[in-house]
């Protein structure tokens, strides 16, 4: 039988869709359902939690950065050998980028999958019917196939909600009581990493138990729809044939679809930990430093001499060295943390970075480059950080950039020879 799929979405951010999706993944996995998890959009942290709950790697499906053909191919690739592709939405169902595209609803339409709407019912009762009716009729190509009521105060409150919802004809799949122990901790870039949460498996089990008790799981599975088969579509080419990839708590923001594309293209991937003072593999012809939280580990990175020497050796032998966001910061000369302490970095790019922005800088980016990257000249990416970069010497920028609405931005990043980096997290190639 072909795998099935469904999408968990909400009218707005903060409705509880992450906790509910995690709980569903956990309880379905406990029931023996082979869940393939995915996250709508560019979020690289939620995928880590989804993978932990489902017991298998999660991917990003980004309807702004990826073509419909690529979305269908990735969804089919992720779902193979599984029973259910379970996709968590992003923000509100119809919320997208500044150009009005990239919403969870767009992904649902492209994949032809039904949506289960998580509604935060705090401080409302029968009005839930008007909200659900509006969402279910807003787009003819998006089906709201069920509703999960969240933050329900009492049995009486649930009865009022269900009575109101009955008039819409949209099935109620369950009601989750209001509880303070169904929230995961956060930090300035979003949720903390799974490895940093004590007792996370206990929390996941509790979420699973709550969903198992309060949601009609069989009805949920019946709502899921067969996932259409799709032809493979190649992703971004590998940075090299032997790629050394930094991977630890300081460099954790990796897009699994990129690694999958590189592996399928025949590249060999090796991983090393800068925090453990490990150098990149000596035979690597490319080194990738992804984003993460280097600002939380400044002293350890400053003391990582073998890591730093390994980067300089890679540059000397002509390897391509590419850093994104936190990786870009690590390639610079120094990083000043929020307490004002400066930490020595690799010194391969003439830039000082500082954790000093009062507000985060975020958004989709259209990028164009003429660097020695083995990628298309035009790329789609995402920017999300609180730090700022001050070049300490003249060097050409890596990218020209515009936002999702097409407004031209300041050039991004720096490059010197085959060493390069910027704040952008590259997602896919983009039309030129």
Number of helices: 12
Q: Residue share in helices?
A: 25-40%
Tell me the name of the CATH class of the largest domain: Alpha Beta
Distance between the termini: 39 Å
Gyration radius over CA: 22 Å
Number of domains: 2
Percentage of residues in DSSP E strands = 25-35%
Q: What CATH architecture of the largest domain do you see?
A: 3-Layer(aba) Sandwich
* Average pLDDT score: 94
Q: Structural class of the helix and strand makeup?
A: alpha/beta
| Main sheet makeup | 8 strands, mixed
Low-confidence stretches: none
Report the CATH topology name of the largest domain: Rossmann fold
The total strand number stands at: 25
CATH superfamily of the largest domain: P-loop containing nucleotide triphosphate hydrolases
Outline type: elongated
Notes on the protein architecture:
The chain has two domains: 4-226, 3-Layer(aba) Sandwich (Rossmann fold); 242-429, Rossmann fold (3-Layer(aba) Sandwich), CATH 3.40.50.880. 50% of the residues are buried. The chain is 28% helix and 28% strand. It has 432 residues and is α/β, with parallel strands linked by helices. It has helices at residues 17-30, 46-54, 68-79, 104-111, 128-137, 155-166, 200-214, 217-223, 256-264, 298-302, 305-316, 326-331; strands at 4-9, 35-40, 59-61, 84-88, 115-120, 144-152, 172-177, 186-187, 190-191, 225-226, 242-246, 268-272, 286-289, 320-324, 334-336, 342-344, 351-355, 361-368, 378-385, 387-391, 399-403, 408-412, 414-416, 419-422, 425-429. Helix 5 (128-137) links the parallel strand 5 and strand 6 (144-152).
């Amino acid at each position: 039988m072909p795998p099935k799929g469904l999408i968990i979405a909400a009218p707005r951010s903060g409705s509880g869709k992450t906790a509910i999706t995690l709980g569903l993944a956990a309880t379905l996995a406990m029931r023996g359902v082979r869940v393939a998890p995915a996250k709508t959009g560019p979020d690289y942290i939620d995928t880590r939690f989804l993978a932990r709950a489902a017991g298998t790697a999660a991917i990003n499906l980004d309807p702004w950065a990826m073509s419909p053909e690529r979305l269908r191919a990735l969804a089919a690739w992720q779902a193979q050998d599984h029973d259910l592709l379970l996709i968590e939405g992003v923000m509100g169902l119809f919320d997208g980028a500044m150009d009005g595209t990239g919403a969870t609803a767009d992904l649902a339409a492209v994949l032809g999958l039904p949506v289960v709407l998580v509604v935060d019912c705090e401080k409302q009762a029968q009005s839930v019917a008007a909200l659900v009716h509006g969402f279910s009729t807003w787009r003819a190509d998006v089906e709201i196939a069920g509703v999960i009521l969240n933050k329900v105060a009492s049995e009486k409150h649930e009865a009022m909600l269900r009575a109101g919802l009955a008039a819409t004809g949209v099935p109620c799949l369950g009601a989750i009581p209001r509880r303070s122990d169904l929230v995961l901790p956060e930090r300035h870039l979003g949720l903390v990493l799974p490895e940093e949460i004590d007792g996370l498996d206990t929390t996941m089990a509790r979420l699973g138990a709550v969903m198992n008790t309060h949601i009609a799981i069989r009805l949920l599975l019946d709502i899921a729809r067969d996932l259409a088969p799709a032809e493979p579509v190649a992703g971004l080419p590998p940075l090299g044939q032997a790629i050394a990839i930094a991977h630890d708590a300081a460099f954790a923001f990796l897009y699994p679809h990129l690694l999958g594309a590189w592996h399928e293209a025949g590249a060999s991937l090796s991983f090393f930990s800068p925090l453990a003072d490990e150098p990149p593999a000596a035979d690597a012809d490319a080194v990738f430093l992804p984003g993460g939280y280097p600002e939380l580990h400044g002293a350890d990175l400053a003391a990582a001499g073998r890591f730093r020497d390994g980067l300089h050796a890679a540059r000397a032998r002509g390897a391509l060295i590419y850093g994104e966001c936190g990786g870009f910061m690590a390639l610079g000369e120094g990083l000043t943390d929020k307490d004002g302490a400066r930490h020595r970095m690799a010194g391969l790019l003439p830039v000082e970075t500082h954790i000093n922005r009062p507000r985060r800088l975020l958004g989709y980016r259209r990028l164009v480059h003429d660097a020695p990257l083995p990628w298309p000249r035009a790329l789609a990416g995402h920017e999300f950080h609180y730090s700022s970069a001050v070049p300490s010497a003249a060097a050409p920028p890596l990218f020209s950039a515009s936002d999702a609405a097409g407004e031209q931005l300041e050039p991004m990043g720096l490059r010197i020879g085959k060493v390069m980096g910027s704040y952008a997290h590259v997602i896919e190639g983009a039309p030129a």
